Amino acid sequence: MCDCAALIKAIDAYIAKADDDLKDALNGAGFADPDGAVKEISSLEEKVTEVLTAETTYITSKISQAKDLPNLYYGDLWDEIKNGDTTAEELAAVFGDEFMAYIPELAGEYIRQADPELSVNTITERTNSWINVWSITLGLIMAFNFHRNVENSIIDGIINGLSISMFAQNMKDKPIRDDYHNARLVSMTEILRAHSVANQEAIMQNPAVEYKEWVHAGVFQTKPRENHVAMNGVTARKDEPFQLLGADGSLYNPMYPRDSNLPPEESINCHCMHKGAVNENVFGLPLEERKRMQEEAIAADNEKFTQENVTNGENTLTNPDNNGIIEVETGSENNMNENMSGGISGALDPESKEAEIHAEQYYESVRNMKNDYINIAKNTGFSENDIKEIKNYLFVDKHELTDGYKRFTPYFEIAQSWQRLESGINIREQDIILLNHELTELRLVKSGISQDDAHIEASKIFNYRKAIEKEE
């Protein structure tokens, strides 16, 4: 018989010891308010655990109602179960609330580390947008990964001839996902990611900071990544990304450690940080002058980020009509050709030979362009790093598609969108949706989701096809 009281006491003691160790490690590395960070991790962990355990209960109970596993998987029931799962939306709300409350407070802590007389009274539109989009993306990734793991288990169950009752019992006895461990891991990663975002916000607002430096924070319960150790002391302008050579040999351009544009293997259990290099000449200016310069820095960043919104309507990321919340559209996009990525309809004559030739020629010209990502960044308010990633993903890189390892098939409407974005002339709402769609899709792919599934999930948030139809 289990001595549950003793077991619970031992677990609590282990977690408390781990929290103390983490607090010491964060303190030694220079993280702001390490005690508060540990408390935030525990608080977020409880909320995430509640959502994950509810999802497990929901899916297990629904599966138990199926006639058999083949009927569950090959019929409509499994799709109905997935469509009825609100976990992605619930997690997005949990993370969004956490980030929106915690990041401004943290940014204030970080700016005071460099200049005790400055404070953060507002955060930039760029950071507001990141909170919104990453919260939704993270929720989608977590929900999708669980669905995929359950699907794999269902297929194994079919192969092994398991009954519904046996399968459901196995889900209870040997859970497909350790909800508590996952909640702990994601909460730690995301709170530390929030520190990076808040620190970058403080660095951008601080007029005395011109450069930032990557700091490897040593080891906490994990082996150090050699490529992160090599980053120690590397500097970059505060508004430009670092260059990180990934463990997979790829070159990444994060603005800070744990940037959400990094793959999980470069973010999870990463305890690096970055710091601003203070210009003493600016630091010595009167407080009122530094405050004025801080306000100018915020305004300049906001202007850069919202340039497209001012000239071509509101960017979906920060639409005031829905208080900055992106409406997640439901519905399958399975009929969309994965080779095209971003949409299949709405072109003037997408089936014509002229459109096909134009798209092929333009895609090739994009691959040879040197400054298009710079121009598009200026024209839209997206970062140069994001546009460069989108360009490589959409036009340059090869992908595992249903018909082989290849580039996306050139598509006339996407070629037209890129032309407008690059020239800055007559940019349409669908063009901005294309950028948001591809950025979300490539981040989902980096998380381990297939390109086809990532395209479907990204279309739920940024539907390029529907945007084209709306323009017609």
Describe the protein's architecture and organization.
- There is one protein chain.
- With 472 residues, this protein is mainly alpha-helical.
- It folds into three domains: 11-197, no CATH class; 207-320, no CATH class; 353-471, no CATH class.
- Helices cover 61% and strands 6% of the residues.
- The protein contains 19 helices and seven strands.
- It has helices at 4-29, 34-64, 69-74, 77-83, 87-114, 125-159, 164-173, 179-205, 226-229, 280-283, 287-305, 307-312, 353-368, 372-380, 384-396, 412-423, 429-446, 451-461, 464-471; strands at residues 209-215, 235-237, 244-245, 251-252, 273-278, 399-401, 404-406.
- The strands form three sheets. A three-stranded antiparallel β-sheet has the order 2-1-5. A two-stranded antiparallel sheet has the order 3-4. Strands 6-7 form a two-stranded antiparallel sheet.
- A hairpin with a 5-residue loop joins strand 3 and strand 4 (251-252).
- Helix 2 packs antiparallel against helix 5 and helix 14 (372-380) packs across helix 15.
- The longest helix has 35 residues, at 125-159.
- It starts with a helix and ends with a helix.
- Residues 1-12 and 308-347 have low confidence and may be disordered.
